[in-house]
Amino acid sequence: MFYQYLDGENWRHIYIVGDLHGCRRMLDEQLISQRFDPQQDLLISVGDLIDRGPDSRGCLALLDQPWFRCVRGNHEEMALAALKGADRAEHQLWQLNGGDWFYQLRGSQCIEARHALMRCRELPLVLHLVSDGKIMVIAHADYPASHYAWGQEVNPRDLVWSRERINQLQRGIGEVISGADDFWFGHTPLERPVHAFNQHYIDTGAVFGNTLTLVQVQ
Question: Membrane spanning segments where (predicted)?
């Protein structure tokens, strides 16, 4: 599943949250403060639900909630690559990047977590949200093209891993991505969100002791 379509008319309020990395309690506190209503509202994640933080399993449980949508992040990719086969290097890469929580699980907890992680294969790489006549695009790291179009072929690895665009923006170099109104990304930990042209980077390093960024877009 590459692109997924969301019609904002189905919800009252819509929020987008930065990389969670196991920080479920921080998310719950923010949702309470925003008076988030699971019957009427929608939460969209820019990916990286897991690793490094205290509650990867709690963040994976969000996938069961009808009020939650998520794109696949590079940490989900690392987990899936490790679980897919016996390549020791893939397991080491995931462990070195915060995946050691999984290897500490035993019995039913391990089975449960494995099932939840395998569900991440079904996560889209791009969410296409239409709200009040505006098109918002959510991906984990980048939309690697100068023009956006629904269903357009782009490099899937760049969607999940690339830091080229944000690195350029931080040097004052950039441009609008045509074809949509706003683009929302995570992946690169920042002290505060970066908003430049029509791009918004909202991973503010919650797992490293900074704030968790939650933005209301509808």
Answer: none
For residue 87, pLDDT over 90 is answered with no
What are the chain's domains? Answer: 3-216 (3.60.21.10)
Over residues 10-32, the pLDDT tens digits come to 999 999 999 999 999 999 999 99
Tell me what pLDDT residue 165 has.
97
Q: Which two tokens stand for residue 108?
A: 């039913």
What residues act catalytically? 75
Hey, which bits of the chain come out as E strands? Answer: 3-7, 14-17, 42-45, 68-70, 126-131, 134-138, 182-185, 194-196, 199-201, 214-216
Q: How many CA atoms lie within 13 A of 26 on its CB side?
A: 23
Does the reported pTM lie above 0.85?
A: yes
- pLDDT score for 99: 97
Of how many residues is the chain composed?
Answer: 218
